[in-house]
Structure formats: C-alpha cells, structure tokens
Amino acid sequence: xxxxxxxxxxxxxxxxxxxxxxxxxxxxxxxxxxxxxxxxxxxxxxxxxxxxxxxxxxxxxxxxxxxxxxxxxxxxxxxxxxxxxxxxxxxxxxxxxxxxxxxxxxxxxxxx
Length: 112
Hints:
By secondary structure, the protein is mainly alpha-helical. The chain has helices at 13-37, 44-65, 106-111.
C-alpha cells in the first residue's frame, strides 16, 4: 500500500476556516465600498454599485464555501480489513476449515 504523504492531506479545520473568513471579509468589504460609492456616482455606475451591493452577499458565501481546488486531492484511506487465518505451529491452517460457499460444488452437481 502506498504511504500517505503529508502534502496530500487536507488543510486543518482552523486553516480552512481562516481561509473562508478572509475570502468572506474581502467580498463584504467590496460590498461596503459599493454602498459608499452609491452616494457619489451617477448613471450606469450607480446601477453597477447597486448590483454589487445586492448580489455580493450571495457571491461572498458561495466563494467562501468553495474549497481550494489545488488542495482537493483525494485523501487515501486505509484499505479494508484483510482477514488473516491463524496458522498452526506446523504452518498450515489452525483447526477445521469451513467451506466458503453453501452452493454445491461442480463434483456434487455432476453426481446428481
């Protein structure tokens, strides 16, 4: 099995939360600038600033909740548990072995 590399692990919850908070704060700061700019601009610029003030909260939440694509590598998880039959001191399987399937074998089907 391949050894897990520290670079393929996702970022810690604290680092992820900090990154989301920075993205959200930047987007909401731009929204505040749009609201202030609405007091001083006219014409189409007023519409642009109003649209920014209205739609930036939604955009800020979406941007903050989107993970960083470079760090979205799939984390390898330990494989499934592999059952290992105990061995006797002679090297063979310990105790009686049970059949793995309850269906009749090819020999039993041919005899019927």
